[in-house]
Amino acid sequence: MKKTFFKIVAPAAGILAALVLASCDNSENNMMDTPSQRTITFENIVTPKDFVQSGNFQGTGTAPVILPGQSVSIKFSAGKTQALMFATMYGASKDWFFASQQPGIKLFDMNGNAITGDVSSSVLLWDNGTKDNMTGQPESKPIMQVSNVNASQLMKLNLAYNDVTSEFTLTITNTSGGTANETPFSPGVWAVSNYSGSQLLNSAPFFTPNALSNPEITDIAQMGNIDKMKLKLNANTGIMTGLSPAIVVVYRGDKNPIYELGKSDSGMGLKEIAQSGNVTKLQNSLKALSNVKAVYIAGNAPVTPGNKVMAAFTADPGDKIAYATMFGFSNDWFYANEQSIEANAKGDLTSKTTLFDSGTGIDQYPGAGNHQALFGGTPQPENMNISKVGSQYPVPAVQNVIKVTVN
């Protein structure tokens, strides 16, 4: 499956497409030293993973199974187009399992509103095709839907939603008691596929209908054993992101003109970069500052994993540079240099780079928040000081997402 096209959706159409490599110079330079020419490069080096979140569930009794009449709940985050896939064994069978329809339970309607309430119609019962249903002898048939059993009569699914956090709660209840198909449910697994901005990275999680099974789903279908699937999910789950075009400023003095840690957003345009990747307002604001000598923009479109943008700049001895780019799959985060950088510096500057929260929008799970620009949303406003992004979410280390170099 192709996994190389990602986008950041800005609220105003055409914002990113209109950006061009630009610069301004509003200083008088009477120095005798020769100005130096440099090129700064921003690379997106994050490793895309199939799933943004995943996990497992089990019963709360002495045995980990979910017996008739019992329920279990799972919490997860998602934005428009994302879906929840889960799987659990139909315990009273040779190799049957419950799973939501591909690519998972639909979570938002066509208008982008969260779907809540009873979604039991989303669950199906599948025959794994690896054991004969009567004898239990091994066989090799494709995974097929069990046609003569209504799965929604055996399992009730209920969705609740928190709009502020973009977090869902799915409650799974075993309603098979007293039916002809009474059965326990085994421990299960769940996952939310990463969204690139144009498609899900995995549109058929766990298994492919009408194809032969795999070892991970076979262990669930035959034994209720989720160990292999958990390992596979853990290896293929992680936060990723695109980057916005980067703003680069050449300036004099000790104060970074882009942001000030511990202070609230100045209103010069950092919010627009951090929320939607729009550099225009900050670019124009910086041009008007007396200590700013030049402003440059690297790139004119989102920087997808495996790609890079660059900008050539000119600086005099004694000048400094500062830069910022959006962590695209967030509500209001941005990468910027935390340490002061002399304009004549060369080499890898990644160690001077930090991920910041602009404090202008309420955070949601990165790459799974419906108010993020990735999903065409607008962050719900907050008024907090600019701070470093903490450990609330398992965000990859800076050096595993972005590489900044000057040559």
Number of beta strands:
23
The number of distinct structural domains comes to: 2
Average residue-wise pLDDT: 92
Euclidean distance between termini CA atoms: 35 Å
Q: What characteristic shape results from the CA principal axes?
A: elongated
The tally of helices reads 4
Give the strand content.
25-35%
Structure characterization notes:
This protein is mainly β and 407 residues long. It has 2 domains: 193 residues, F-spondin domain (Immunoglobulin-like), CATH 2.60.40.2130; 185 residues, no CATH class. A hairpin with a 5-residue loop joins β5 and β6. The longest helix has 9 residues. The radius of gyration is 26 Å and the shape is elongated. The two termini are 35 Å apart.
Note the main attributes of this structure.
407 residues; mainly beta; eight-stranded antiparallel β-sheet; seven-stranded antiparallel β-sheet; 4 helices; disordered N terminus
What layout of secondary structure does this protein have?
Blueprint lengths: L22 E3 L10 E9 L6 E7 L13 E7 L5 E8 L5 E5 L4 E2 L10 E2 L4 E5 L16 E2 L9 E8 L4 E8 L10 E9 L21 H9 L3 H9 L10 E6 L18 H7 L3 H8 L4 E7 L9 E8 L4 E7 L6 E5 L3 E2 L4 E2 L4 E5 L29 E2 L13 E5 L1
Antiparallel strand pairs: 1-15, 2-16, 2-23, 3-13, 4-12, 5-6, 5-7, 5-13, 6-9, 8-11, 9-10, 11-12, 14-15, 14-17, 17-18, 17-19, 18-21, 20-23, 21-22
